[in-house]
């Protein structure tokens, strides 16, 4: 449709390529006047995506790109409304709307299935980034400001406020986030990566409004921008709009100032130690230590080498057959891998890291020694072919398994490479990368071992960082206090008067009623019918089965629900632990390593998760059990069901040593992420105070579950806990009611159903009938959970109506209006909290 060299709406086509792996065509364009690069992915997908991004490279930690990201969305020339971005939540059918700041880029993506909505959002996003108002008051609101603790009282204390300021205080309330940021800055010290792009709370108050305006003028230029679109909407219309309305107003500039050079490599490894806060929800104090060993590896623009590093990482750290799992995880030295572990392909010099959490500080040296011994072992012995094939199988399966947000996922994967002028077409041709790897392996059986030697043994750009709890909170609070004193003690009388007036003025501005008539909106067009799937239900061997015949791109999906009605109260509370470990044991036929090998080489994995859902007709009833899921290529469906049958009938829960290690890792992971997901925990906690089903969810997924597990491990040995899990498995797999769902291509129906019935036949038969548990409303009460973090989270829960009730839809709309019309303006804009919202769940 578009040919290289031809001109279209101010753009010239530079490259076209059909990508068979994903059945799509990539078109690359360059804007003739400004040099802006444009990538369009043409694909039969109604969920269309549009995005514009800028390479943003700050040279301080004031959070400049992050605060600018917030500020440009506070009104523009064409849409001079406070926060048009949030106000569009009420008048858009977007399937995704956001903006985000990375370490070296700022991205503004959205998606929609409605073309009118798509064009509306396109106009708002482009006007925001190219013609923002960037008002001083918006900077004070979104960035930082000094404000009186009592707004109308000039004599009250001055305090720091600001949306991003508070957001970043929250972001660094999690030890893992502090560790990750410090590690990143330390291993890449010489350029923009040596700073905190999101903003360090102690540095943010150094930023001025002039800095913000100048940064926008420099970096938000079309010559430093890239536009991405995806889907089936009219590309000519998009290009014409972008060119005529915005790009034609600019002249081309040299944007090489934003290019990020490679990090100058160290001549010898570096060691560093940092401090963290004590986590009162985590492991004992003496074990709240972390270590990470990392290397800079391939240049992101070397697509094949980056792909190769991904393969090596999977082989080295993922699953019980990987080298580092065997040497560092199975000996139970720690609470398992920390969140830094893995391969980061999103920065100019890509990074490989292995890290451990919750270990004694005296074991730091031991871990480093084991790490080096493991690398030597890999170089000497190499990788098993079956292990490599399972990794390549996973890649093949993921190419076939495509979600409804494929276009967004593709954008997020391509943006970092594109940001450094990498070859996007090559990166999307995954099959060619696999074939290149296979060719290299065929020519040299020790190919991967030599790569390990190159990237690890002979790589001197290695950082070993350790972290231990200390007086982090006291030191941070003291630094923040001194920061405030340093700002306030220099203020003149006129300065104080100005700050008071600005606070009042901002408050009045926030409370003013905006004229939203300038914003685009949609007509109410509700289709009388929706697309229907080919769904049928049957009772097969006394087990209810739902089937959906649909184009699945050669993948078959299975889900089953095991009713937990026969479990005791304690056994029910054990289900999260059971679900986390049950697929990590062996069976009577094969050990856990062999089973993991078979699972990863034939399926996408076998998952177990807690299933708790309320009746759509009566929120006084709920169903509770375990959800089992898997999917596989059509050719591997027999293997998938055979694996499921083995787990159901032959699971071997006798290895106490392995369980002790799995339990230790589970306990460590429980407390990770609580601070950053505090709003979710607060909502779950509040929900647990109003209904019995909510209370059970809190006991299974909330703070109460952590308390339960701590008490369980304190009063029971690993062997005793494992014995309890054996009874859970026996009850669920041998006696529980089961119902299943299958999604598959019509052409594979006969084979799929035959293998499914064979699996069902292997389970002892039992009449299946959904059992509803009774959920009573609880007396109103309040609860406070005290944690050692500098952020507070609040939630309130109210019982309303079930999903099928006529009032449910109006309440869902009301929740959206409460969020955008009241909570966001009052809680976020006026009071500086990072976020606020209301929602109604399907249980009412």
Automatic annotation (TrEMBL):
Cofactor: Zn(2+)
Main localization of the protein described in the UniProt heading: mitochondrion
InterPro entries reported in the protein's UniProt record: Metalloenz_LuxS/M16 (IPR011249), Peptidase_M16_C (IPR007863), Peptidase_M16C_assoc (IPR013578)
Gene Ontology CC terms, in alphabetical order: mitochondrial matrix
Subcellular localization, as worded in the UniProt entry: Mitochondrion
Signal peptide bounds: none
Keyword tags: Hydrolase, Metal-binding, Metalloprotease, Mitochondrion, Protease, Zinc
Keyword Mitochondrion appears in the UniProt entry: yes
Pfam families assigned: M16C_assoc, Peptidase_M16_C
Biological process according to GO: protein processing
Domain Peptidase M16C associated: 467-712
One annotated GO molecular function: metalloendopeptidase activity
UniProt record similarity statement: Belongs to the peptidase M16 family. PreP subfamily.
Official protein name in the record: Presequence protease, mitochondrial
Organism expressing this protein natively: Aedes aegypti
């Amino acid at each position: 449709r578009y040919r290289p060299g031809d001109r279209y709406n101010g753009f010239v086509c530079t490259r076209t390529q059909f990508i068979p792996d994903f059945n799509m065509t990539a078109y690359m364009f360059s804007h003739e006047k400004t040099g802006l690069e444009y990538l369009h992915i043409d694909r039969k997908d109604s969920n269309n995506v549009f995005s514009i991004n800028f390479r943003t490279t700050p040279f301080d930690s004031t959070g400049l790109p992050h605060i600018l990201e917030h500020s440009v969305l506070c009104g523009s020339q064409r849409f001079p409304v406070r926060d048009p971005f949030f106000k569009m939540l009420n008048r858009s059918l977007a399937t995704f709307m956001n903006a985000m700041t990375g370490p070296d880029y700022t991205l503004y993506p959205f998606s929609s299935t409605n073309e009118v909505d798509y064009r509306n959002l396109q106009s708002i996003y482009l006007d925001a980034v190219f013609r923002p108002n960037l008002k001083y008051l918006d900077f004070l609101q979104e960035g930082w400001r000094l404000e009186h603790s009592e707004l109308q009282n000039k004599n009250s204390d001055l305090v720091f406020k600001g949306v991003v300021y508070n957001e970043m205080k929250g972001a660094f309330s999690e030890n893992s986030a502090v560790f990750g940021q410090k590690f990143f800055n330390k291993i890449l010290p010489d350029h923009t990566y040596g700073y905190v792009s999101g903003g360090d709370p102690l540095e943010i108050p150094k930023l001025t409004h002039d800095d913000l305006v100048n940064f926008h003028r420099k970096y938000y230029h079309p010559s430093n921008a890239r536009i991405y679109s995806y889907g089936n909407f009219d590309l000519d219309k998009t290009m014409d709009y972008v060119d005529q309305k915005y790009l034609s107003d600019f002249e081309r500039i040299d944007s090489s100032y934003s290019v990020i050079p490679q990090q100058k490599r160290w001549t010898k490894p570096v060691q560093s130690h940092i401090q963290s806060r004590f986590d009162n929800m985590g492991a004992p104090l003496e074990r709240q230590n972390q270590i990470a060993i990392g290397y800079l590896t391939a240049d992101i623009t070397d697509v094949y080498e980056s792909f190769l590093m991904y393969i090596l990482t999977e082989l080295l750290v993922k699953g019980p057959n990987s080298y580092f799992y065997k040497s560092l995880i199975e000996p139970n030295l720690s609470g398992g891998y920390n969140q830094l572990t893995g391969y980061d392909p999103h920065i100019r010099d890509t990074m490989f890291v292995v890290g451990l959490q919750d270990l004694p500080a005296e074991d730091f040296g031991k871990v480093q020694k084991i790490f080096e011994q493991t690398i030597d072992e890999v170089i000497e012995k190499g990788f098993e072919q079956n292990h490599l094939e399972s990794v390549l199988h996973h890649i093949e399966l993921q190419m076939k398994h495509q979600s409804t947000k494929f276009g967004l996922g593709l954008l997020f994967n391509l943006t970092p490479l594109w940001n450094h002028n990498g070859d996007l077409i090559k990166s999307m041709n995954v099959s060619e990368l696999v074939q290149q790897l296979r060719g290299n392996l065929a020519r040299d059986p020790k190919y991967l071992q030599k790569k390990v030697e190159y990237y690890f043994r002979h790589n001197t750009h290695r950082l070993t960082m350790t972290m231990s709890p200390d007086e982090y909170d006291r030191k941070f609070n003291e630094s923040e206090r001194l920061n405030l004193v340093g700002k306030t003690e220099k203020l003149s009388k006129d300065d104080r008067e100005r700050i008071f007036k600005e606070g009042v003025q901002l408050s009045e501005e926030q409370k003013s009623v905006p004229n939203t008539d300038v914003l685009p909106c949609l007509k109410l067009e509700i289709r009388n019918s929706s697309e229907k799937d080919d769904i049928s239900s049957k009772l097969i061997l006394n087990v209810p089965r739902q089937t959906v015949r649909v184009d699945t791109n050669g993948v078959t999906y299975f889900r089953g629900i095991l009713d937990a009605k026969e479990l005791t109260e304690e056994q029910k509370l054990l289900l999260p632990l059971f679900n986390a470990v049950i697929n990590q044991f062996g069976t009577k036929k094969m050990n856990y390593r062999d089973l993991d090998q078979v699972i990863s080489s034939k399926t996408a994995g076998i998952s177990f998760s807690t299933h708790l859902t309320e009746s759509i007709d009566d929120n006084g009833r709920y169903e509770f059990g375990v959800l089992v899921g898997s999917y596989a290529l059509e050719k591997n469906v027999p293997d998938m069901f055979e694996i499921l049958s083995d787990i159901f009938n032959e699971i071997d829960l006798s290895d106490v040593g392995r369980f002790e290690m799995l339990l230790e890792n589970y306990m460590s992971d429980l407390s990770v992420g609580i601070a950053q997901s505090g709003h979710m925990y607060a909502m779950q906690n509040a929900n647990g105070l109003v209904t019995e089903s909510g209370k059970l969810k809190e006991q299974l997924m909330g703070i109460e579950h952590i308390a339960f597990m701590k008490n369980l491990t304190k009063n029971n040995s690993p062997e005793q806990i494992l014995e309890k899990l054996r009874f859970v498995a026996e009850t669920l797999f041998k006696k529980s009611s089961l119902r299943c769902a299958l999604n598959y291509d019509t052409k594979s129906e006969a084979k799929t159903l035959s293998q499914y019935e064979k699996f069902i036949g292997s389970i002892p038969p039992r009449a299946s009938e959904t059992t509803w548990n009774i959920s009573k409303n609880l007396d109103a009460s309040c609860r406070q959970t005290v944690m050692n973090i500098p952020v507070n989270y609040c939630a309130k829960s109210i019982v309303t109506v079930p999903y099928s009730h006529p009032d449910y839809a109006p309440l869902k709309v009301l929740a959206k209006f409460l969020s955008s019309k009241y909570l966001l303006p009052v809680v976020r804009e006026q009071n500086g909290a990072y976020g606020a919202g209301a929602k109604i769940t399907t249980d009412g």
